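RECORD TYPE: inverse folding
INPUT: structure tokens
STRUCTURE:
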């Protein structure tokens, strides 16, 4: 073979081997695939919404999933907007810090600086108390829900007349009412409406030109998600059609935004476009620890933002079908995947299965409702495999370890033998993660009360369960 032919032959081999060399997926690609795969299983379980995930300050997932409007078959897009609930409070807080930065107020200012006739028990209450939920105010000041007709004067009078639950500063008790007072202070000091002040001083410098409030004219109808799996209000259960905010809600909720817009807010804060470095310190944990803030309502919406400022990792989730899989639930699982851990809810479709059982028993599609329905189903069925699966999937490991599997199984079988087929007479939620059920045997009429408690952390497994016979 001549040198020229040999050189040409070598060139051809090198060309083809370079063209067909397998490309190794980067760690970022692998993470993206893992996140996409998990989110898609959540979609199969009923999740619909938008997700943005940034790692090291770089966006690796920003997509919409499921339907924004089921009737019109409109998919959720990455820029679809949602009601973001109490995440609004982050912006109310930022507005107060902005006014302090402008020298127009101080966080140490008492309520008496802004309001006349402040009751004696609230004279020492400061803006700082309101920001930190340490006043002792009640959670709400409305009696009919978020859309109750209420003007500013009535809201202030109602809130100031509340009987405090504890001495200001003694402890923390979450209060929407406190943030409504902050919104009033923003209006009094700025001489602008609360909405106008936020739009001009926060949204605009952050480049958030698609963030607003209920019934704003910023969006077309198809760009706003419709809420499902909850209460409904108005012509269509969407912030596009909902009434304008009243002072039952101002300051504590009412904002509408997208996951991308909320990421713009994070970037604007980092770049000091909205607040100075000094003012911004009060928005974050002083030790740089991770933060999570969430919002939701009774109309199907929920949203969450997870911030890991040291790693520059961020997770933003918004959903319009809260009861299927809430934004905080999905966000928490994504945070575990980002850390290289396995998600606690390995099969989101289990939530859908439990939701179906909850509907069968007429219980709400909530953590307590779903667990309660599975308890009822287990008592009602004499199926050892089903009972074993219930124990393994629904009880906490520490609760399971208190008895042998045989003892657990024999207990449920005995309950079934004594009761036979049952019917549910009543269900009562006694606290956020505690509830009791009253059941009756269809054969003997015997009644039994079931008490159970869930762990506070996802996936809210049963940490305590007891039965008590109801005597006639």
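DESIGNED SEQUENCE:
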């Amino acid at each position: 073979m001549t040198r020229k032919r040999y050189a040409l032959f070598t060139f051809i081999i090198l060309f083809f081997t370079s063209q067909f060399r397998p490309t190794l997926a980067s760690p970022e690609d692998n993470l993206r695939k893992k996140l996409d795969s998990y989110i898609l299983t959540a979609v199969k379980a009923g999740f619909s919404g938008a997700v943005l995930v940034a790692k090291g300050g770089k966006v690796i997932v920003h997509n919409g999933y499921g339907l924004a409007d089921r009737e019109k078959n409109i998919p959720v897009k990455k820029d679809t907007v949602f009601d973001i609930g109490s995440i609004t409070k982050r912006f109310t807080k930022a507005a107060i810090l902005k006014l302090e930065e402008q020298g127009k107020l101080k966080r140490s200012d008492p309520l008496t600086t802004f309001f006349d006739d402040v009751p004696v028990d609230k004279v020492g209450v400061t803006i700082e108390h309101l920001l930190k939920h340490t006043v002792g105010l009640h959670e709400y000041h409305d009696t009919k829900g978020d859309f109750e007709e209420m003007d500013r004067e009535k809201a202030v009078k109602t809130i100031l007349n509340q009987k405090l639950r504890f001495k200001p500063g003694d402890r923390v008790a979450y209060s929407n009412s406190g943030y409504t007072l902050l919104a009033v202070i923003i209006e009094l000091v700025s001489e602008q409406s609360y909405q106008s002040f936020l739009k001009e001083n926060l949204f605009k410098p952050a480049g958030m030109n698609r963030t607003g409030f209920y019934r704003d004219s910023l969006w077309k109808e198809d760009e706003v998600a419709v809420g499902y799996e909850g209460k409904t209000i108005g012509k269509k259960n969407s912030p596009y059609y909902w009434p304008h905010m009243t002072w039952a809600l101002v300051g504590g909720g009412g904002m509408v935004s997208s996951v991308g817009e909320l990421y713009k807010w994070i970037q604007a804060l980092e770049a000091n476009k909205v607040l100075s470095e000094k003012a911004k310190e009060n928005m974050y944990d002083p030790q740089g620890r991770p933060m999570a803030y969430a919002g939701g309502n009774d109309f199907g919406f929920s949203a969450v933002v997870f911030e890991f400022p040291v790693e520059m990792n961020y997770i933003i989730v918004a959903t319009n079908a809260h009861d299927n899989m809430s934004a905080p639930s999905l966000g928490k699982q994504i945070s575990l995947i980002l850390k290289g851990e396995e998600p606690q809810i390995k099969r989101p479709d289990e939530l859908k299965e439990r939701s179906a059982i909850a509907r069968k028993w007429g219980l709400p599609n909530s953590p307590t409702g779903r667990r309660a329905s599975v308890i009822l189903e287990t008592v009602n069925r004499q199926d050892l495999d089903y009972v074993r699966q219930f124990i393994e999937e629904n009880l906490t490991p520490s609760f399971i370890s208190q008895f042998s599997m045989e003892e657990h199984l024999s207990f449920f079988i005995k309950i079934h033998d004594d009761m036979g087929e049952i019917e549910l007479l009543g269900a009562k939620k006694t606290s956020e993660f505690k509830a009791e059920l009253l059941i009756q045997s269809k054969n003997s009429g015997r009644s039994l009360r079931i008490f159970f408690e869930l762990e506070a952390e996802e996936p809210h497994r049963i940490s305590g369960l007891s039965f008590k016979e109801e005597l006639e």
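NOTES: The chain has a mean pLDDT of 88.
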